[in-house]
Amino acid sequence: MKEPQDPGDERSQRTRMLAGALYRADEPELVTAHLRARGLTDRFNRTPADDTAGQRHILDELLGSFGPHSQIRPPLYCDYGSFLRVGARVFVNFGLVALDAAPITIGDDAQIGPNVQLLAATHPVDPELRRVKWESAEPIDVAGNVWLGGGVILLPGVSIGENTVVGAGAVVTTSLPADVVAVGNPARIVHGGPTGR
Predict the structure, then answer these.
(1) Residue 74 DSSP one-character state
(2) pTM of the entire structure?
């Protein structure tokens, strides 16, 4: 099967990835970036709990940005780290998975429960495109003062509005506005907003 790339498109796979186009993650530049992230997350996950300065140093090196007075409890897993931006005074509990093949932004004062998955990466529905290892990604944006309960999953392209609460175990397939509470799979608004009480 012909690969879905215009012969005149000379963009790197990294550029295609960040533009939301189909890309191949096996490009040397992306492989190197992924291995760097794996090494840094391994170091972070093994840093003693009382070495908060050491943890902070690693996160400053790994992440696109890491705001003041923010905390991420290990373990942390990400694809690249450099496309994950964490605001100020953010608390991230154990086990965050951030597949940051597209930018993932977490706003100031957000609270992220344990085992949350921020899945910006995705794969084509077409089986032949998957077979030849094409993939894509869409940004995820978590606004300020959002609370994501334990086990929440955000799918590619989702935005969560300011002050919104997403209940434990919810799977968010479409963006949520500000100032609502959403629960379930797929997540639905149960309080606030045009469809809530």
Answers:
(1) S
(2) 0.93
Instruction: DSSP letter for 176, please.
Output: B
Domain coordinates in residue numbering, the chain: 13-191
Give, rounded to a whole angstrom, the gap between the first and last alpha carbons of the chain: 51
Active-site entry in 34, 57, 123, 191: 123
Cβ neighbour number for residue 77 with a 10 Å cutoff: 17
Conformation bin of residue 61: beta by default, left when phi > 0, alpha when psi is -120 to 50: alpha
Ramachandran category for residue 130: left, alpha or beta (phi over 0 → left; psi -120 to 50 → alpha) = alpha
Superfamily name and number for 13-191: Hexapeptide repeat proteins (2.160.10.10)
Predicted confidence (pLDDT) per residue in 30-46, tens digit = 999 999 999 999 999 99
Q: Is 191 one of the catalytic residues?
A: no
Which residue in 158, 163, 155, 161 sits closest to 121, CA to CA?
155
High-pLDDT (> 90) share of the chain, %: 91
